[in-house]
């Protein structure tokens, strides 16, 4: 007996089960964290996602103004550390090879990636504020970053 109404339900269950392998962390799981523009004394532009006025960071983006290059550092627990940082903004996403460096202070790893300021994922974050970061099996939806990310990326973009 063929039941046409069960196929969509089965497919939805299959998709949900396959996505269940990635642990999701919502913005409510980043207590007290917000986006803060904190430019460096050497003239570099910086944007951090962390707890203001502390060393508690999740992401740090930095660039020399108008250089066209953005350095992204993701702070990851040792169990999550891998050689890849995956960034999503809506339907736009990419995986970036990362260099890992042990952080003796936290016992974790700082994963570093250099991106082009015109990278499609970064452009979409600047347009929408949406950013999801995947480090190993940990998927973290960040607080909306529209205004600070837009201004930061504008400072980083190369100009003729």
Describe the structure.
- The structure is a single chain.
- The chain has helices at residues 6-19, 120-128, 146-156; strands at 23-25, 34-37, 45-50, 57-63, 69-76, 84-89, 92-97, 99-103, 108-116, 132-135, 138-141.
- It has 160 residues and is of the alpha+beta class.
- The protein has one domain (24-156): Immunoglobulin-like (Sandwich).
- Strands 2-3-4-5-9-8 form a six-stranded antiparallel β-sheet, covered by helices on one side.
- Helix 2 (120-128) packs across helix 3.
- The N and C termini lie far apart (67 Å).
- Residues 1-25 have low confidence and may be disordered.
Topology readout:
Layout: H1 6-19, E1 23-25, E2 34-37, E3 45-50, E4 57-63, E5 69-76, E6 84-89, E7 92-97, E8 99-103, E9 108-116, H2 120-128, E10 132-135, E11 138-141, H3 146-156
Parallel strand pairs: 1-11
Antiparallel strand pairs: 2-3, 3-4, 4-5, 5-9, 6-7, 6-10, 8-9, 10-11
Helix pairs in contact: 2-3
